[in-house]
Amino acid sequence: MTDKPFDDIPSEVVAWVDRLHEVADEVAQPLLTAHAERLRCRAGCSDCCSDGLTVFTIEAALIAKRHPSLLAEGIPHAEGACAFLDDEGRCRIYAERPYVCRTQGLPLRWLDEEEHDGAAEIVESRDICPKNEQGGLPLEELPAEALFTLGPFEQRLAARQSAVDGGEGRRVALRSLFAQAAPRKHLPVL
């Protein structure tokens, strides 16, 4: 038995995850450029860096490979925000941040199948960080290619994870990657 659920991830799978992240960044770059005027995301903006985030074990393996000292000796950020934030709200693993973190802030779109009057219908949804709403066309007026489409990268990650774990889809909480626990928030007693 391994110490962590990602210790047995083959190195070629870790390299594949790294490359998938690079490709996601390449796909996102033209959108970052096109929407530069409206994007308020900067180092220290951590509104989307929520606590309790889980990732596939294949992504956790990449983080573990590249940040062994941080995970062994570092202390996670206090509960309530992502464990990988530093005291100024910057990501300590930015280059290896999970896929989901790479699309935050961008105008997003995704397709869902919904039932309407007994028939399946494909419905498009769109969203953007509230801080990034101003400074450009409203989301509903943007052409589809001006938004990052969610789905294809997630499907590739899920398929690769399934190939590694026999279809279990194992995930791990980012906070659990640290050897040491974070200081707990103490709420006032009323």
Automatic annotation (TrEMBL):
Superkingdom, natural source: Bacteria
InterPro entries, per database record: Puta_zinc/iron-chelating_dom
One Pfam family linked to the record: CxxCxxCC
Protein name: Fe-S-cluster oxidoreductase
